[in-house]
């Protein structure tokens, strides 16, 4: 559970963002330094080959953002991150591999308080990281403005709301930066018989199945990685696969999932807008939706479509968001009926389900 969120005191002025690059590969350190230094708003103040060197350089250089390799010698990245977030919390962007182990460790890092991650290609690292330059720079910029999130023990009590097992209700959740942990907290508060819940989180395809598995371990609901044409059942949550759009459609008395490989929307696939717009079209007033932490504005227009269709809509507030981009954009559009802390999102979604459903 997120207990507190404190704005990072990194430069609010025009001074460049100071970055420390931590990676055991000299080639990766060199490439990442070149990519980040090429941006006039970022200055790489140093690099470190392992956490012990990084610890000393943090004291000497006082960086605003750390990029941290997951697997390193002498001390693994997770142990270092755990110590860092306990003793000197600061924005961290993880650099992870697109492997099953890389996915698990990266999700662990996000749970420990890392702001975001960028995937490191397994082969031809020089060319692959070069292709990620724009993504890397943007994630470092967002991290410098993000709130460093302190984690507290998981909450186990679910809201005292009952009688959800019905095909007439549908919940939808969208998120990006900071969303893996925000979604986990929301689902932790859901009862086992909550309405069917569809989820779009910006995440690579190699990581989304591991993300669904993690949510399933922390939720009373059954959380699954979506398959094409899968029926939506009460008591289940459905995570969109990375790299594929998720839509819902009505078939008789039930809703089903539809996966699509059509073009990214606002540079994202899955896109929250795509999911929310399909829920607005096929569920309308029988839906409730929440837009959580994330950079950019994906989901804001979809949430507005849901509100116009009669759905209950809620946005995470700025104080509890790691990055208040997506929910902030929704608030600016008038798409959210309510703006509440993350700790109240599940309660607000469930409260709307007790009203009489609209005709199918």
Automatic annotation (TrEMBL):
Record has Hydrolase as a keyword: yes
Q: Which residues carry this modification: 4-aspartylphosphate?
A: 69
What's the top EC group for this one?
A: hydrolase
Its keywords, alphabetically, are:
Chemotaxis, Cytoplasm, Hydrolase, Phosphoprotein
Pfam family for this entry, one: Response_reg
The Response regulatory domain, residue ranges: 18-135
Provide the E.C. number(s) assigned to this enzyme. Answer: 3.1.1.61, 3.5.1.44
InterPro entries reported for this sequence: CheB-like, CheB_C, CheY-like_superfamily, Sig_transdc_resp-reg_Me-estase, Sig_transdc_resp-reg_receiver
What is catalyzed by this enzyme? [protein]-L-glutamate 5-O-methyl ester + H2O = L-glutamyl-[protein] + methanol + H(+); L-glutaminyl-[protein] + H2O = L-glutamyl-[protein] + NH4(+)
Spell out the post-translational modification annotation for this entry: Phosphorylated by CheA. Phosphorylation of the N-terminal regulatory domain activates the methylesterase activity.
Q: Where in the cell is it found?
A: Cytoplasm
Which ranges carry the CheB-type methylesterase domain? 164-356
UniProt-annotated catalytic positions: 176, 202, 298
* PANTHER family xrefs: PROTEIN-GLUTAMATE METHYLESTERASE/PROTEIN-GLUTAMINE GLUTAMINASE, PROTEIN-GLUTAMATE METHYLESTERASE_PROTEIN-GLUTAMINE GLUTAMINASE
Its domain description in UniProt is: Contains a C-terminal catalytic domain, and an N-terminal region which modulates catalytic activity.
What's its job? Involved in chemotaxis. Part of a chemotaxis signal transduction system that modulates chemotaxis in response to various stimuli. Catalyzes the demethylation of specific methylglutamate residues introduced into the chemoreceptors (methyl-accepting chemotaxis proteins or MCP) by CheR. Also mediates the irreversible deamidation of specific glutamine residues to glutamic acid.
- Write out the similarity annotation: Belongs to the CheB family.
* Record-given protein name: Protein-glutamate methylesterase/protein-glutamine glutaminase
